[in-house]
Amino acid sequence: MLNIEIRRPRNEDMDELYEFFQIMVKDTYTKEGIGDKLEDLENEILVKKIYLMDDLTTQGEKRFFLLAIYKDKIIGSIAYGPANEIIVGCLHKSTSEVLELGTVFVHPDYQYQGIGNLLLASMFQTMNKKGIKEFWLDSGYKGAQKIWQKKFGEPEIFLKDYWEKDAHHMIWKVTVPDA
After folding, report:
1. CA-CA distance, 120 to 101, in Å (whole number)?
2. Residue 150 lies in a domain
3. What distance in Å separates the CA atoms of residue 47 and residue 41, rounded to the nearest whole number?
4. How many independent structural domains does the chain possess?
5. How many CB atoms lie under 10 A from the CB of residue 134?
6. Is residue 178 part of a domain?
7. What distance in Å separates the CA atoms of residue 170 and residue 179, rounded to the nearest whole number?
8. Residue 36 pLDDT greater than 80, yes or no
9. Is the pLDDT at 39 greater than 90, yes or no?
10. 15, 73 in Cβ contact below 8 A?
11. What's the pLDDT tens digit per position in 91-140?
């Protein structure tokens, strides 16, 4: 196993993280066969940047990131914060009532080596320390959906043909395991 450091983002990570988000979102869109949706892609990258700024400007109070670092390079990320509009809309609650886990990325060169599991376990530890008992997780990406179904079972909410025919959106309610 690689010697991975899990840590919080720093201001000096911003440029590298922005580049990391671009690589990850473009890779995801390409693998999902939606690489032609340039406006959506740019918007998703912008949202990730905003989430990161929320973390850095509030010292993790509004949104909380963890990074996976290997040889001084960012190779993974995970975050939690207020739930997105899709989750909130399905639950009929406000964003302040519901947390979501998201921005779970592992660089393509390092996937399938346990880094995502390491990030998730580290986030569970953080959530336990902060008294967070549950979160929501959603995905419209078929590849990610398979991973989350294997890890968390069938979704709590299944939005059939949400994005287009045969492009569903899934939402899981996850109880944080005790440390």
Report:
1. 9
2. no
3. 10
4. 1
5. 11
6. no
7. 27
8. no
9. no
10. no
11. 988 777 899 999 999 999 999 999 999 999 999 999 999 999 999 999 99
Closest CA to 25 of 9, 37, 12: 37
On the question of pLDDT at 5 being above 90, the answer is: yes
Residue 116 structure tokens: 């995502």
The answer to whether the beta carbons of residues 52 and 9 sit under 8 Å apart is yes
For the chain, list the strands marked E by DSSP: 5-7, 64-70, 73-82, 99-106, 134-139, 157-164, 167-175
Q: What residues make up the domain containing 86?
A: 5-132
Cα–Cα distance for residue pair 156/168, rounded to 1 Å? 13
Tokens at residue 151, please? 């890890």
In this structure, what are the phi and psi dihedrals at residue 107, rounded to the nearest 5 degrees?
-50, 140
Q: Report the CATH number at residue 116.
A: 3.40.630.30
Enumerate residues 6+ apart whose C-beta is below 8 A from 29: 35, 37, 40, 41
**pLDDT given for residue 128 in this prediction:** 96
- The verdict on residue 151 lying in a domain is no
CB 20 within 8 A of CB 109: no
Task: Please give the single-letter amino acid code of residue 148.
Answer: W
Q: Any long-range contacts for 13-22 (C-beta under 8 Å, 24+ apart)?
A: 13/67, 13/74, 14/52, 14/56, 16/73, 16/74, 17/52, 17/67, 17/74, 17/77, 18/45, 18/49, 18/52, 20/74, 20/77, 20/105, 20/107, 21/45, 21/48, 21/49, 21/52, 21/77, 21/105
